[in-house]
Amino acid sequence: MRLLVALSFAGVFGTCTLAQPSAPPGAAELKEETALAQAVSEAGSSSVDLIRALEMHLGKYPATKQRAAIEKGLAKAAMDTNDDARIILYGEKVLHRESPDDMPLIDRVTRALVEKSDPDQAKRALEYANRYEKDVLDLRARQQPPGHLTAGQWSEELDHAMARALALKARATGYAGDPAGASKIALQSWAACPTGEGAREAGYWLTNLGRTQEAIEFYANAFSLEDSRTTEADRARDRTRLGGLYAKLNGSEKGLGDAILQAYDRTSALLSERSARLKEKDPNAEATNIVDFILTPVDETLPRLPLSSLRGKTVVIDFWATWCVPCRTQQPLIEKVKKHFADRSNVVFLAVDTDNDPSLVVPFVREQGWNDRGYFDAGLARHLAINSIPTILVLDPASHISSRMIGLIPERFEQMLTERIEDARAVAANQP
């Protein structure tokens, strides 16, 4: 049997499984695969050791059929270790070879290329930044967001991605010799979504063009803006640049505090405006509690369901997906439990689909003959950190999570779920 080798990486980098060829391997190929599997195994969870092992393997087997997967693994491990040289070396190989683009990778390759303000590298970075921008536009053209995001969350993520792409494009444009073009693109980044990076980029290129007053405003924006991607080190550098520019223009830092307060007011107003538009577009965009969510039914003829309307009831939420085989096994078992509580109006069962592509759900439900598969996710699974499917949550009458059942044990499922529902119902019975 063909040996399958998996290169695993920590966190968001996922798993890359090497492809199986159509023909059985020969002795030499099998020997190489065995060597690769051993090297990966010995590297364990260390990205540094993995890089060393994979590069040694490429040196020993330069004609390996696994080169594409190994180079992708090296690019991901380089990202994990912040190794710019290897991010560029292996990341460019992957981006030249694969389509569509790996968004985190194209971001990191572009950043690495503009790290040292080298004009030749900046020109290469500009090509990737343009691709990055196009990737975001292509994603925005999708009619529906991925199932685990609300429409508002999807829009926000794309706005932030566009701001990052344009900020990198501005940097590459400037380092390639066009500071005026860089300042215009940086301002586009800020308009796409106010971020510390976009403000910083605008401040830098406006300073380069001698537009000091405008640069001061943008560095003040960067310093005052609430942005999770801005570190304390970033803020310290922003404060230093801001103070230097202000003193140069005004002779001292007197009055700088007022400029910073104005920036706080300016950026707070911008964020408030964005928040209001987002809430208008998507009622779940700023939901912070389970009961804040409003779910859209799979059956479009039915009304949306505010979870706040279920306060005082025990709620069983089944998170499922069309691709989940255990979910299909679990469905008739859930129906049996539902029948057990059929005469209890204070027990409600909800099925919440978590597919990335919601268009798959209706035809799947019809094919399976399921009469009630409930609601689309609308961001609830993400909010509740549902990382595995199937997962069932049982909410007590106060809308607190009483139980979380992950996975499926068919022979015990009915008993376990019934007992947990009864435990949740007991909360209300025991309250004064």
List the helices and strands and how they pair.
Blueprint: E1 6-8, E2 15-17, H1 27-43, H2 47-60, H3 67-80, H4 84-97, H5 103-113, H6 119-140, H7 151-175, H8 179-192, H9 196-208, H10 212-224, H11 232-250, H12 256-281, E3 294-295, E4 305-306, E5 314-320, H13 325-340, E6 347-353, H14 361-368, E7 375-376, H15 380-383, E8 391-395, E9 401-406, H16 410-430
Parallel strand pairs: 5-6, 6-7
Antiparallel strand pairs: 1-2, 3-4, 5-8, 8-9
Helix pairs in contact: 1-2, 2-3, 3-4, 4-5, 5-6, 5-7, 6-7, 7-8, 7-9, 8-9, 9-10, 10-11, 10-12, 13-16
Order of helices and strands: EEHHHHHHHHHHHHEEEHEHEHEEH
Largest sheet geometry: 5 strands, mixed
Roughly how many Å apart are the termini? 65 Å
Radius of gyration: 27 Å
Q: How large a portion of the residues is in β-strands, by DSSP E?
A: 5-15%
Output the structural class. Answer: alpha/beta
Any idea of the CATH topology of the largest domain?
A: Serine Threonine Protein Phosphatase 5, Tetratricopeptide repeat
